[in-house]
From TrEMBL:
Domain Helicase ATP-binding intervals: 629-789
Highest taxon of source: Bacteria
Domain Helicase C-terminal residues, every copy: 914-1065
Species name: Mitsuokella jalaludinii
Name assigned to this protein: ATP-dependent helicase HepA
Molecular functions (GO terms): ATP binding; helicase activity; hydrolase activity; zinc ion binding
Pfam families found in the cross-reference section: Helicase_C, SNF2-rel_dom, SNF2_assoc
Database matches in PANTHER family: SNF2/RAD54 HELICASE FAMILY
SWIM-type domain: residues covered: 50-91
Amino acid sequence: MIDEEQIRAVATDAAYKRGVRYFRRGAVGHLERQEDGRSYTAVVEGTEAYHVRISLTEAGDEVESFHCDCPAAAQYLGACKHVVAVLKTVQQQSMAGCSSQGTDAGGRRLLQGFQLAAQLPSAPLQEPVYLVPRLFVESAPGRVESWLEFRIGMSRLYVVRNLMELLQRVMAGEDYSLGRNNVIHTASLRWADGVSERLWAFMQQAYRDEKSLLRHQPALSYMHALQKSTVFEHKMMHLTPSLLEDFLAIMGETSIELHIDGSEAIAAHLREGKPAIHLEVSRLADRSGRITLEDGDLTPLSEDCRILYQHEAIYRVADAFGRALQPLWQAFARATSVQLSHGDMTPFFSSILPAVEQVADVDVDAGFEEEFLLVPLTAELYLDYEGEGIAVKPVFVYDHIRFNPVVQAVPEADEGHLLVRDSEAEQALLAVFARYGFVKKRDQFVQLDEEKSYDFLTQGLEELPERVEIFYEASFERRPVRPMPKVTAGVSVNDMDLLEVTFNMKDVDYQELLDILDSYRQKKRYHRMKDRSFVTLGDQQLRAIASLVENAGLRQKDLAGGKIELPLSEAMYLDGLAREDEGLQLVRSRRFREIVRGIRQPQEADYEVPTSLKPVLRDYQVTGFNWLSGLADHHLGGILADDMGLGKTLQVITFLLARKAPEAPPSLVVAPTSLLYNWLEEIARFAPALQAVAVAGSKAERRALLEQAGGVDVIVTTYDTLKRDVDLYAQRRFACIFLDEAQHIKNPATQSARAVKKLSADTCFALTGTPIENTLTELWSIFDFLMPGYLGSQSKFKQRFELPIVRAEDKKASKALRQRVMPFILRRMKKDVLKELPDKVERKLVGEMTPQQAKVYRAYFMKSQRDFLREVSLASPGEQRIKILAILTRLRQIACDPSLFLESYHGGSGKLDMLEELIAEAREGGHRLLIFSQFTTMLSHIAERLRKRGLAHFYLDGATPALTRMKLVREFNRGAVPVFLISLKAGGTGLNLTGADMVVHFDPWWNPAVEDQATDRAYRLGQRSNVQVFKLIMKGTVEEKIYELQEKKKSLIDQMIKPGENFLAKLTEEEIRALFQG
């Protein structure tokens, strides 16, 4: 083994010291031992990569010869620094090979397994270890190579010279030496940060994946391949495109040290979007063309051009972008411009330019635009019937030039012009015909299959490119695919209180209407009319008619007479179907309209409220009384499902008092035992004119009470007694029955449910705030009491609604059930009936800072108080305002997140935590949010939190281009993402974001009018939802005082006041001083 004296002997002191520095920083790579066993070659990275060769004596303890191709080597009397670095590397490897062998990893596992490990010295406590990558890329035409090199260590970083050795040692549980007194103890290894930990896992996975692939090779090949890894080569980890993608994903926002083609280190960051590429097409004097690429130092980092570098940024672009860029990059790899002859400009404009425009901004010389016929393709398609299918004759049109691509050659353009065909657009159009199975016949494309013809007409035409016109030949009396003809249904109420429904379809006889319904029942997608046109059978009106027929239990023969009779309870359902689909025109008789209006719009009914209760009832309670009255007038039942505390009992008492009549039968109230006497007290309090009796006591007493109830208006009993007294009620008929807390009959198999369903009444009602607690059967059970048969039998209800909704989450079944039951359920929540609740609700959310944040705030606040007193005493009034605003801004930043200006701060942000909880709750409720902040850096912090949670979002600030702003607004309103982060000044005006229903002001701004303008991005014309506005305030900070000033000044703020300093200028000295009081 060569010793230190030998190395010093062959070099000057200066060369030796520089060589040692090169060795320590890991500049030696590709060290290979030659076949003679005593010669070595290596590459040393200096200002360039230099090749070194050394030879040792046979004993290996002296230097025999050396050579380096660096310029300085010829000037030195001895070895240069590169040779010294290689000699040190050889020395280190020799020392590692001669080290003594102790207990290996397998031995340690054996001892630990038999609990003898305690006899061995415990592993030293490991300092946290950093793993820091460097990315190298060599980019040439058609070839891009990338690899990683790593440095590892604790307080000091060392170059990893053999990655395979590091992986194998650590994964085997062995310690790894970095140098003198620096060892990574695998048993207690801790990574210093998340990036280091993820990078180590990344390297391990790559090692395992390669090893797994190699196992499928023969044994000898496998052993050889392990020694010649394609991924790990000495200190390099070669990156495939997928490995490079994984590496970039790991690094995220972390800066990446990048070296391109031997360049100095570049601090690069991942960036969203696409790089800027500009292409200029110039016309030369000989009519040839010069194509110049301005790519702004663009460099592909992967062969597929999906990973790109430009201006210290790394971009990951879409596959299509990469595919379009590849040929462009290869063409311009050696020069920034290329030249094309005049003849080659035609295929350039026709085939190349459309593809280039996908990745670059292109400027074309006006001279070319005059010479070449650069007009877009328009196409005309002439449709005709062909047997059971269709025929299409295509015509391509370039300005005045027209031709049929099926049979005609392309005509020449005018003299002096060259026609440039848009081959991409032509192929896109012809590809549609190929996808739908058309074949050439004469001068047309034909499709003879009926179903495929329907698919083309309904889907294929939608797939056609832009600038395509459709023409129909004379054989088409009407369009080939017709919308469902409007169905007119006439509905009236006959003398038996039954609905009579008749159907009529414009321009279609009744028999064909029945045929259409039959096709729909067979689940066909379309119906072929007698005139050969198609009618799509997915229309809502067909579903409405079929649903109505199915609900009524009607068969095809029942429709043959042209008139259907239905129970009156179907009135609301039929009316609802007609309201939802304009295609189903329902001609309603006067009585039908009155019945529906009374139930659907109870607030407009004119039922007389008893005089004694007029001062007591609120408007919504009058509406509830009207609703009960309207249903009762038509012997229909319903569920009064108001929120707790809204007075369901009072509304029923009003109804009972209004219905009091001398000869009328009594009404029955069935309530839980705990509410029995509450009903009597409420009746006595609000309607003492009503004679009420509670049926309680022994069986004999209850019998006697019922027998003596001849002149009673209201009988009150409990579920518990009713099920024992059902025989006492069997022969009685009541005017109305009310079930209070009707969830008591949610299980149809219980005695309570069976008992109440044996009762007889003109009208039945249920009172419950929870008509469904666990299963839909509970709702069916209540309706089975209210209107028996309305939701069908229990088995049919389960088959039609419950199983599809619960098991398959069938939205159609869910909607159909809502349509049937909602007219008979009146449910108001407190927020729905409080008049003071506006369409825009503002709330202040107060949170607490984290302990570390509060500590920072207190320190700065005390300093701010001193600074304020100094500025007030020394500065001029104008300077005071500016400096005070700066002081307050710093305090506001700390209240948001101290790391906005303290890079070393890691104590968390209470406000960020509060926002994160608010977002989570909002998303669970299906809300979409706008989040405003004055501080763009704060928005970046929020964006980072959202990314870590995997929540998609948009970002807009003053640097966002106008076109991008509009695209973001359009995509947000379409529902692309749930959260939009917006700078207050950049996005506070001029945006229409009605896709949001929740606005969050992360930090309070001086002028509340500015906040209101920002809020109005969502709360404006076109907004259909209530808008919730949240202002996040940190307790014990200047934010609370700003909020108080906002509230104080709101009524005084003139609309002309501008945001920021002008508002501060309106504050009195006393108000300003109050901001700095603790």
